[in-house]
Amino acid sequence: MKKIGIIYGPLKGDTEKVAFKIASEMGKENVELLPVKETTEEDIKRLDKIIFGVATIGKDTWDSDHKNTDWDDFLPKLRKMDLTGKTVAMFGLGDNITYATLFVDALGVLGKEVMKIGAKLVGHVSTEGYEFKDSKAIIDGKFIGLPVNEDYESHLTDERVKNWVAKLRPEFGLYQ
Ligand SMILES: Cc1cc2nc3c(=O)[nH]c(=O)nc-3n(C[C@H](O)[C@H](O)[C@H](O)COP(=O)(O)O)c2cc1C
Hints:
- The protein is 30% helix and 20% strand.
- The chain is α/β, with parallel strands linked by helices.
- The chain has one domain (4-168): Flavodoxin domain (Rossmann fold, 3-Layer(aba) Sandwich), CATH 3.40.50.360.
- Strands 1, 2, 3, 4, 5 and 9 form a 6-stranded parallel β-sheet that branches. The protein has a 3-stranded antiparallel β-sheet with strand order 6-8-7, with no helix packed on it.
- Helix 1 crosses helix 5 (157-168).
- It is globular, with a radius of gyration of 15 Å.
- The chain starts with a strand and ends in an 8-residue tail after the last helix.
């Protein structure tokens, strides 16, 4: 079986921690962990199944003057790629208290870009159990990917990851 690529950034914080948790839950032998700042177009071409992980750091998430998420360099390159035929899921780190009106916005921004370039986006999540005022990550009443809140709801992360991965298994060709 071809490996599932977990492409994530930034490194060394909550996003990386959650990327590792998802990898463990999927089975490390099934997964390849790739920091987004090391990811090339060749990687994207050879991976049919991809999980993108991103943290929302305000508008700076995409601003090339602020190199703090690693996505700012990759997104312009990704926009020029073709993800037709690929299955993609996404997770996003955010904080629902300090940024209640911008909760996990980067997940929505990235998700829309990924859909534009032809990917089949899976792993949508109900808003039930999340408290927030507004989020760009909601499409048709659901989060476009998995929101994870290590700032205020870290006690829920393991369960959220477990439930999400269970739903992704058939989409990603993983059988228990
Ligand atoms: C400067 C700054 C801006 C942030 N802006 C947002 C935001 O707009 N929306 C949100 O949901 N979280 C926001 N957050 C919270 C982060 O997404 C959250 O702390 C995340 O866990 C950080 O992940 P990391 O440790 O991988 O960097 C912000 C955090 C910082 C430090």
